[in-house]
Design brief:
By secondary structure, this protein is α+β, with helices and mostly antiparallel strands. It is about 35% helix and about 15% strand. Strands 1-2-3-4 form a four-stranded antiparallel beta sheet, covered by helices on one side. A hairpin with a 2-residue loop joins strand 3 and strand 4.
């Protein structure tokens, strides 16, 4: 049976209504899942790689310093390439949930096993670095110390009684001396 223009128009209208309804379902599902993921977040592994190099550490590195002293101050380099033996790269990467990801790279170049140059971006101080990786605190911090008034209200500690030493029990034996008396 051939389709008439009115039946074709009705089929196209039904298909359009169906697509609109399906699109609406997708929007509802997406908004529901967005609400759930705001409340329940999946665990993400923290990634910490490399050496943290701070302003204070970098200030200790001077031209002419030997390699072993640089290793003492900054640690082992993350990249010490055999093809570029005169270059050490200290790379630091951290991805931690609740904080911004960070990546820094410090390059130390050597000539005759002595520091020739240091290339580094603007590095944070130790306090700035700790603040940048600390998560925002939620709620109040627990109280860690009693006030003097609270200490006075505490009961005096009970000291356990020390038992008197007990004399050894058992058979008493006498042994002859090991050496003869003169």
């Amino acid at each position: 049976m051939p389709l008439t223009s009115s039946s074709r128009l009705a089929a196209a209208a039904a298909a359009a209504v169906g697509l609109v309804l399906l699109g609406g379902c997708t929007a509802i599902t997406r908004s529901m899942s967005d609400g759930i993921t705001r409340v329940i977040t999946p665990y993400r592994v923290e990634v910490v790689q490399g050496n943290v190099v701070t302003k204070e550490q970098l200030a200790l590195i001077k031209p002419g310093m030997p390699r072993n002293r640089v290793r003492d101050l900054l640690g082992s380099p993350l990249i010490a390439d055999a093809f570029h033996a005169q270059r050490w790269d200290y790379v630091f990467v951290i991805r931690r949930q609740g904080t911004e990801p960070q990546q820094r790279s410090v390059t130390v170049r050597f000539e005759n096993d002595l520091v020739a140059s240091v290339e580094a971006p603007e590095l944070p101080s130790e306090l700035e670095f700790v603040a940048s990786i600390s998560r925002p605190r939620q709620g109040e911090l627990p109280k860690l110390e009693l006030t003097p008034e609270e200490r006075e209200k505490l009961p005096a500690p009970v000291r356990p009684e020390v038992a008197a030493p007990v004399a050894p029990q058992g058979a008493a034996r006498s042994y002859p001396p090991l050496e003869a008396a003169p």
